From TrEMBL:
Domain AMP-dependent ligase C-terminal stretches: 337-413
Record-given protein name: AMP-dependent synthetase
PANTHER family: BLR5969 PROTEIN
Pfam families tied to this protein: AMP-binding, AMP-binding_C_2
């Protein structure tokens, strides 16, 4: 039996990278023609020239908050009155409308996302395969089918794989136990916490569920301790990382070393609040360019923190890997009644070439806040520190102490703003 969902999962890394980059100009041109928001993002950009990561990185990142604001502005204001209804609803990011879209979903905000009729639209089939699911099996899907796309993400993936799906949804653990006992599904998709509740309810009811031997989890953390808890009950669980905007971003394999990035996206790690890609190993924000022709998001900032792992996965898949979800990149905090966000710290860095990296520490108590901006600098001078302090004052309207530190000494945790105040 094949180890891989597709043979390209083990293709030489340079070959895969080149294939993605070769398809990028055409994908951007098509997106520009059908998605007005992407046309604005690509203003003054020659799409034919976007054939490498360096050129791609010059295009500004669009973050989730901006997507929400674009949708709200078009739905509520005059900006979108001249556009078709679907363009207004999706903020100009969708390339398809009613009839072409099979479903539409809503995430908190609300942000509305289309789903087209293409098989495995969300891209989770390869994650299911890596987790051990095979054609001809019954998948017990306990993601919600209500409002958000999680239920459809797994169902469309299972169908693409050749599986049958039971739409268990969430809640009603006693009925879930009964259905699993009756149907004998091969595996589960959903959150790990809900499967744990189902298994505990089965224990209370004295019901054995021996058919359930594998699971693909998402939507929650899946720490090693929980992985072991399921293993002791005969269930091998893996995790996948995705979003309602992008679909599947990365997935776990039997190697258990990070998450392998999806074949159909271009993933970057950028400094939070900036457009600048970081070197492999540095923790930063996950930014994704998807070649999805229906919902073509370009340099979309997820707001999640991660880092690229070096080398190839021992499972034989050759695509790049990330460490997994490592927190949120949006570290905006309120100091003395003013919001300070990572983008402002990035602007400070850009003003001073001598500064390589910076981290704002906010300490003290609410009402008596202390801001210290630590800057990595090889040759600090009193004059430079004064100029940096002036930049902070101008950009944030707040005063901060400036502390020069050795290059490479700041923690590699993706934090640009570290709020360590005492809230007691």
């Amino acid at each position: 039996m094949n180890t891989y969902f597709e043979e390209r999962e083990r293709a030489p890394a340079p070959e895969r990278e080149q294939a993605l980059l070769n398809s990028l100009p055409g994908a951007l041109k098509a997106a520009r023609e059908r998605a007005p928001a992407i046309a604005r993002q690509l203003q003054n950009v020659d799409t034919d020239s976007v054939q490498d990561r360096a050129t791609l990185s010059r295009i500004p990142v669009v973050r989730k908050g901006e997507l929400l604001q674009a949708q709200l502005a078009m739905r509520q204001g005059k900006a979108g009155q001249e556009l078709p209804a679907v363009s207004r609803i999706f903020g100009g990011f969708s390339a398809i409308g009613w009839g072409e879209a099979a479903r539409v979903f809503a995430s908190p905000g609300p942000i509305y996302e289309p789903e087209s009729k293409r098989p495995d639209y969300w891209g989770f089939a390869r994650a299911l395969y890596a987790a051990g699911f095979r054609p001809g099996e019954l998948v017990y899907n306990c993601f919600s089918y209500h409002f958000t796309p999680a239920g459809s993400m797994m169902e469309t993936a299972a169908h693409a794989l050749g599986c049958t799906v039971f739409p268990g949804g969430v809640g009603q653990t006693e009925q879930q136990v009964q259905a699993i006992a009756d149907l004998s599904p091969a595996g589960y998709t959903g959150t790990p916490s809900f499967l744990k509740l189902i298994l505990q309810k089965a224990d209370d009811m004295g019901v054995k569920l021996p058919s359930m031997t594998k699971a693909l989890f998402s939507g929650e953390a899946f720490p090693p301790s929980l992985c072991q808890w399921f293993a002791e009950r005969g269930i091998t669980g893996y995790q996948a990382y995705g979003s309602a905007d992008l679909g599947m971003i990365a997935y776990e394999t039997p190697a258990r070393e990070g998450l392998v990035v999806n074949e159909d996206i271009i993933l970057e790690i950028v400094r939070p609040g900036s457009d600048q890609p970081l070197p492999a190993g540095e923790v930063g924000e996950v930014v994704v360019t998807t070649l999805n022709p229906d919902y073509p998001l370009l340099r979309f900032g997820t707001g999640d923190l991660s880092a690229i792992l070096p080398g190839m996965s021992p499972c034989g898949r050759t695509n790049i890997r990330i460490k997994g979800w490592m927190g949120r990149a949006d570290q905006t905090t309120k100091v003395r009644g003013m919001f300070v966000h990572p983008g402002q710290i990035e602007q400070v860095i850009k003003r001073h070439a001598e500064v390589g990296k910076a981290r704002l520490e906010v300490s003290g108590k609410i009402g008596s806040d202390v801001m210290v901006l630590k800057v990595e600098c090889a040759r600090p001078s009193p004059e430079l520190l004064v100029k940096v302090a002036e930049s902070v004052r101008e950009l944030t309207k707040l005063r901060a102490e400036i502390e020069a530190v050795e290059p490479g000494s700041l923690p590699n945790d993706g934090k640009v703003i570290d709020d360590i105040r005492n809230y007691d």
